[in-house]
Each structure stands twice: as structure tokens, then as C-alpha cells.
Design brief:
The radius of gyration is 28 Å and the shape is globular. By secondary structure, it is α+β, with helices and mostly antiparallel strands. The longest helix has 25 residues. The N terminus is likely disordered. α4 packs antiparallel against α5. 45% of the residues lie in helices and 19% in strands. The strands form 3 sheets. The chain has a 7-stranded mixed sheet, with helices on one face. It has 18 helices and 16 strands. It has 4 domains: 116 residues, Sandwich (Immunoglobulin-like), CATH 2.60.40; 97 residues, no CATH class; 91 residues; 138 residues, Glutaredoxin, CATH 3.40.30.10. β13, α15 and β14 form a beta-alpha-beta unit.
Length: 499
């Protein structure tokens, strides 16, 4: 009996040991707090928000953390982080960026405050200036200060200072068809000067950046790059160097594969089969495992959706299949993000939702306008073309407001300016101010003023974008109502006024 008891005690001890060991192994992977602090009086009262790219196919932003700079210029924010990430913040004309490590603390210096001019703030074409954030000091997980020469950002900066001109020169040499042996010797000489370090992220960063050198020097040898850098390597979903090399290596992969095997068009366009496509692409040996094969498929579904070489309906069907059937959680998330991006402004799908304050400072959502057709327009109260457009839709509102809502999302700097304009103009349709959802211009792809969309009573896009000239807009409204058998009905109800 005692022997039996001792047997189970030993088994229990082994379970406890291995469970504890597993937890110790997993602990470093758990999210740890990152702290960013500094003192910049010029930014007093400003909201400081840091983001990271969470999906390099869609450039999906993930907000990492934010804080308000105090009246004296002090700021400090903490956020959880489970792996090294490149983070960034939009500060006036600048986009500042740097790498953070889990558990580390950073004292930083913000660039001289340079706000956008009214014209820059209004222009959808304005490009921010990307700069690395000035780091004053870094403390590691144990609270020990990291020497400047061993700090990740400094190592990457010094590496890129040498890498970037060499990469550009190799690309030029390759175009000029310089001998490959000479290009390879230049790359080997470069690799020899990379400092040896035990920093895992830096080693991966330099490894995949070096892959860009071989890609630039040996275009057309995708299989070599694939086998060397991806075939038997783990996927690094948030490592910019990995994803940059991945994106160029497998660019237009469906199209290149189809040149040798046109069965891809059958599998994609007619079958719309995610599993069938995996089996087909695995036949040539370039994509030897599920992880790499699925990631290549997801990238190319995203890219091909905008290229018109494959059926959009079939690509959407495969995305839905990936969202459900992929055994890799990151791939299910990527598939969902891609689907959200490519359908958000697609006819027949619901546009991005929002909640904005109207001219009465009441928070309203896109859902509040269901039940009627909606003409949604993005403009300002200062732009000359927008002012002309307001006169057009004033007439539209007068003749069709019984069945048509008109909403203008104003991109004026201040809500008070929008409210004052509406009061003075006498316009009766709703004006909404964008400030509560500053990403709305990106979500609705607003690049020029005016930009407009036409949405049906169920909240789905009918015209994306909608015309904004009087003759085309009026004709589009008539065509939509006629297609649904509503024109004569609305005329009979007196909901349409014919001048």
C-alpha cells in the first residue's frame, strides 16, 4: 500500500515540476509593461498616442497607449507589450518612431513642436515627416540603465546607416547587370562588419534586412530567397524587416505561379477553395509548410483583390474559409482584418461605423440614419468646392428629404466653426464633426473634397464613391429608386418634388 502511495506521490511531484517549468518558460512571453516618459513644455495639454502596426498587409494600427501632457510638459505612459515592437506617434508634421522592448523604460525627447498649417491639416495628400525619436536613457527589466551602444534603437540606427546606401547601390548595379559574383562579394563584406550580439531581435532584424540585399542583387531568384529566409523559419508577424522581405519575395505570387500552372485560376475562380489552393501551391516545393503557405495566400488575396486578375467573390469566399478553418490563430485574425479592409467601402457591404457630434453637440452614429437612403459627404466649411456643393445638396434636400437623409462630415479644425457656419447658412441637414473619430478620413478613403457615398436604408453601400456633380447625382438617385421600384411610389406619396 505504501509503495502505491509513493508511486502516486512521485507522479504528483513530476506534474508539479513540469507545470512549474512550463510556467517559467512561458513567463518571458507574457505581456510586460513599457514606460515612456519625458518633459516637453511646448506640448502641454496635447494628447500623446503611440501606435504599432499589427498587420503588415493592411497596415492595421494598434493603439499601444496614450496620455495627456501636463501643464508643465511632463508626460508618462505605460502599456503592456509582449514582444519587441516598432511604435510611432503623430506629432504635428512629424511621425516619430522607435523600438520598445517588453519591461523596459524609456526617457525620450520629443521633436520641436511644429503643428500642421490649416492647409496641411485640410489636405488629404499631406505626408508626415518620419523621424526616429530621440532617446535620452533606457532602463531594462531589472531597472538597470542600458549602455547606449547596446541599446536596440542605437544598434538598428547604426546598422541602417550602412545598410541603406549599400542596398540602393546593389539595386542600381543589378539593373545595370553587374556580375553577380561582384554583388555577392559586396554583401559578404557588409555582413562581416555587423557586430556580434546576443540580442535576439537585432539578429533577426539584420538577418532579414540582409535578405533584402540578396533580393536586390538577384531579382528573379525568388525560390532561393524563399528557401533561405522563410521555408523552415518561424513567421515573425510584427518584425518590420521580416515582413518587408516577405512582401517583396511573394509579391504577385499567384500570377507568377499561374504562368507555369494555370490550374490556379480553376481553383480560385471556380472553386474558391482555400484548402484546394493550399494543396496546389504546395506542389512545387517553394511553400513547404502550412504556416508559410497560408501567409502567402493571405497576402496575395489582399493584393489580388485590387488587381482584377481573380474573381473578387471567390477571393472573399477563401478569406471566409481562412477565418474559420485555419489552425493558426494569427492567420484567422489576419484574414478577418483583410476582409474588413477590402469590404469596408465595397458596394453591397456596410461602410465603417462611426459616432460623431452634430451641430447640437449630440453624439450620433451611422446607425441612427437607417430607414432612409443616406447621402454622406466629407467636406469643410472653408473649401470653395465644398461651398458650391452645399448649394447643390440644399436643392437636393428640399426636393427629396422625405426619403433621403443628407449628412456632411465636417473636417473643420473646431466644432464651433462648423456649428457657426450651419447657423449662419441656414442649411437644415446634419453636420457632424470628425474630431471624435479622427481616423474616419482614412476609413472612408477621403483624398479630395468633396468625397461622398450613397447608402441604402439597410445601411449598405449603393454608390462608393457617389458622384457629386448635379446631373450625375440626380441620375444616380433616379436609377437607384427605379431599380427598386420606388420612384413612382415616392412620387405618389409626394416624397419627391419635381420642379
Amino acid at each position: 500500500m505504501n509503495n502505491i502511495m509513493m508511486y502516486f506521490v512521485n507522479i504528483f511531484r513530476k506534474i508539479i515540476f513540469f507545470t512549474t517549468f512550463a510556467l517559467l518558460i512561458y513567463q518571458p512571453l507574457a505581456a510586460q509593461q513599457v514606460n515612456i516618459s519625458g518633459n516637453e513644455p511646448a506640448y502641454a495639454g496635447c494628447l500623446l498616442t503611440f501606435y504599432s502596426i499589427d498587420n503588415f498587409f493592411c497596415n492595421t494600427e494598434l493603439m499601444m497607449g496614450e496620455c495627456i501632457v501636463s501643464a508643465h510638459g511632463e508626460f508618462s505612459l505605460n502599456f503592456p507589450c509582449d514582444e519587441v515592437r516598432l511604435i510611432y506617434a503623430h506629432l504635428g508634421i512629424f511621425q516619430v518612431q522607435f523600438y520598445v522592448e517588453p519591461g523596459f523604460s524609456y526617457e525620450v525627447k520629443l521633436p520641436p513642436r511644429t503643428d500642421k498649417t490649416p492647409e496641411e491639416a485640410e489636405s488629404p495628400f499631406f505626408q508626415t515627416v518620419k523621424i526616429y525619436l530621440d532617446i535620452l536613457s533606457v532602463n531594462d527589466k531589472q531597472g538597470q540603465q542600458v549602455a547606449a551602444e547596446k541599446e536596440l534603437n542605437m544598434m538598428i540606427y547604426q546598422f541602417d546607416e550602412i545598410f541603406n546606401p549599400l542596398h540602393d547601390q546593389l539595386a542600381i548595379d543589378a539593373v545595370r547587370r553587374r556580375p553577380v559574383a561582384r554583388l555577392d562579394s559586396s554583401i559578404r563584406a557588409f555582413l562581416e562588419i555587423i557586430p556580434a550580439t546576443d540580442h535576439h531581435f537585432f539578429n533577426k532584424y539584420t538577418f532579414y534586412r540582409s535578405g533584402l540585399l540578396y533580393y536586390a542583387a538577384q531579382r528573379g531568384r525568388t525560390s532561393v530567397i524563399s528557401n533561405t529566409y522563410f521555408a523552415r523559419k518561424p513567421a515573425l508577424y510584427v518584425n518590420p524587416a521580416y515582413m518587408e522581405l516577405f512582401n517583396v519575395t511573394y509579391d504577385r505570387y499567384f500570377w507568377f505561379f499561374g504562368r507555369a500552372n494555370d490550374a490556379i485560376y480553376e481553383v480560385v475562380n471556380r472553386q474558391g477553395s482555400f484548402g484546394g489552393l493550399k494543396r496546389l501551391l504546395s506542389q512545387d516545393g517553394v511553400l513547404p509548410n502550412d504556416t508559410l503557405c497560408e501567409l502567402v495566400i493571405l497576402k496575395n488575396i489582399h493584393d489580388e483583390f485590387y488587381a482584377d486578375r481573380f474573381s473578387r467573390g471567390a477571393l472573399l469566399h477563401m478569406l471566409d474559409s481562412a477565418r474559420v478553418h485555419s489552425k493558426i490563430e494569427q492567420h484567422r485574425e489576419i484574414a478577418s482584418a483583410i476582409r474588413s479592409k477590402i469590404t469596408k467601402l465595397l458596394r453591397g457591404f456596410e461602410p465603417p461605423q462611426f459616432e460623431l457630434y452634430n451641430q447640437d453637440s449630440t453624439l450620433v452614429s451611422l446607425q441612427d440614419y437607417r430607414g432612409k437612403y443616406l447621402f454622406l459627404m466629407f467636406c469643410t466649411t472653408q473649401n470653395y468646392v465644398c461651398l458650391q456643393q452645399y448649394q447643390l445638396i440644399e436643392d437636393l434636400y428640399r426636393r427629396h428629404n422625405k426619403w433621403l437623409n443628407i449628412v456632411v462630415v465636417s473636417l473643420d479644425e473646431f466644432l464651433s466653426d462648423m456649428r457657426s457656419f450651419r447657423q449662419k447658412s441656414g442649411y437644415q441637414w446634419d453636420f457632424l464633426h470628425f474630431a471624435n473619430d479622427p481616423d474616419i478620413t482614412k476609413n472612408y478613403d477621403v483624398r479630395i473634397f468633396p468625397t461622398a457615398y450613397f447608402i441604402d436604408p439597410e445601411g449598405k453601400l449603393v454608390l462608393s464613391p457617389a458622384p457629386t456633380t448635379e446631373d450625375r447625382l440626380e441620375r444616380s438617385l433616379w436609377q437607384e429608386l427605379s431599380r427598386n421600384g420606388l420612384w413612382q411610389e415616392y412620387l405618389g406619396k409626394g416624397w419627391i418634388i419635381l420642379d
